[in-house]
Each structure stands twice: as structure tokens, then as C-alpha cells.
Amino acid sequence: MSTLDPARRRHDELESRRGSPTFLLWLCFRFAVFVACAALLGYGLACVADIFRHAVVDTAFADEARFDEAPTWLWWPFGAAFGYVLFGVGISDDLATFLGRHRCPGLMAAAGWAGITLGFSVSTLNWWPPAQVGAAIDPVTLTETPWSPLAWVGYYTEIWIPLLLLVTTGAAMSRTVSGFRRQNVQLRERDRLLARGLRVPGTIADVNVLVDSPQEDGSVSIAGIDATVTFTDAEGVARWVTRRVPSLHRVPDQGTTQVLFDPERPGDEGSIFVAFHRDPATSDWIPFDGP
């Protein structure tokens, strides 16, 4: 039995993490390990790519000892992928809580992809050169066979794959920065409304559960929830807004939803924020994410 409201306990716990130096150190550690695992994953994938590259450009490999070592380093991608997932799960939500945001758009995806790009690019510096550029040598007859177009593509893999990864990393980072800038505008509006806006209870009118593609066993995972909430503004007009709830959040019961809006502009979608908790923390207020 407890005398403390669970909603209030949750609120206090989340607010204690917002801006906490101790929590920031824990986040920095997890983030650093996450990026390091991404880099190791990229390095291991590049080692595998090097093997297939030589399978295309050479008929025999100059250093057979390299393959004797393969079973050892071949576990790197698997171990790195495990650490990537282990340390990546939940860090985006925790970082959003620390920053007082409802989410961090694309940050972890961009950071992970940057780590993979770094690891892959570093690994290409240690790739073997082919036995002979432009021709594959038959180890039995010692005859030379000119490279096919595919072999030339494989030969330049150490150039075009890192460049492709670099371009996509830049695009991911650019989109993340754009998302944060747009969100900063929303946060300033949220903070203004928390001080001067009107907060009223809302009622969930409709719930649309978003699921990923079904697996082979028929199971599906929830990708998110679109909840339509109705509320009444200061003039007595009923209004409806739809907000996307992350799948890790509990689907709220009727009466737990709150709506924050500008009473002077109740129809402005960009000035309406919805929280699906009875005692919402700062990061619980969800803005409009539409165009």
C-alpha cells in the first residue's frame, strides 16, 4: 500500500531526470558505447565485404592466413550488433526526458549510421589489394582472365561504399537538425502555454493502432498509436485533435487525457498539446507533427 499517487510519483521521477547532471553522465556513457558498437559493426561488415570483393576480383587469395583468422573476427558484427541494440533501446526516450522533449527526432538513427560509416571507412584502409589489377589469375594454368564489369565495381568498393555511407549520413544528420529546429519552435510555444495557456480535460474519441508488417509466425509489433482526442474550448466549442502516442506508452483510459491550448487561438493546431497522463511531466506534452 502506498499513500503517494502513482501518477505523481511518475511525474516527480521524470522531472528529476530533466537537466540532471548525474543522468546526463549515464546518458553520455550509453551513447558512447552505442556509437562504438555501431563503429565495430561497420568495421566487421567491411571485413566481410572485403572477402566477397576478393571473391569477385581474384580466383585465388594472396594470403591464406587471412582466412584462418576469419572465424575470430567474424564474430565482431554479431557482438557489435548485440551491443548496438542493447545500449540503443530506450536511450532516445531517456534523452528526450532529459531535454524535456516528447521525443528526439532521428537522433539515434543518425548517430548509429554515422558510427557504421566511420567503422566501415576505417576498415577499408586495411583492405588487401588484388593480386593483379584488371585481371584474375587462374592458380592452376596461370592464365589471366580480364575483369568483368562486376569485378571493376568490386575493385572500387572501397571508394563508392564509404562515399555512399557518407552521403546518407549527412542526409540523416541534416534531417535530424531540421527536426530539432522545428521542435524547438514547438517547445517555446509549449513553455509559453504552460505559463499562460489553458489546460482542460480531454476524452479519447478514437484509437488507431499502427502495426508493423506481420512476421512469418503471424505475430505483429505495435509501431504506434494514433489517438483522436476531443475537448471543449473556452467558448464551449467541441474540437478534435489527433496525436501519435509511442507504442511503449500505456493506452490511456478515458479521463486521463489533458489538452493544453491557447484560449485566444483554440483552432490553431500548432498551439495545441496533448498529454495522455493524469499528472503529465514536461516531456509528456505531444505537439502537432503534421506538415
UniProtKB/TrEMBL annotation:
Transmembrane stretches, start-end: 23-46, 73-92, 104-129, 149-173
UniProt keywords, alphabetically: Membrane, Transmembrane, Transmembrane helix
Protein name per the record: Uncharacterized protein
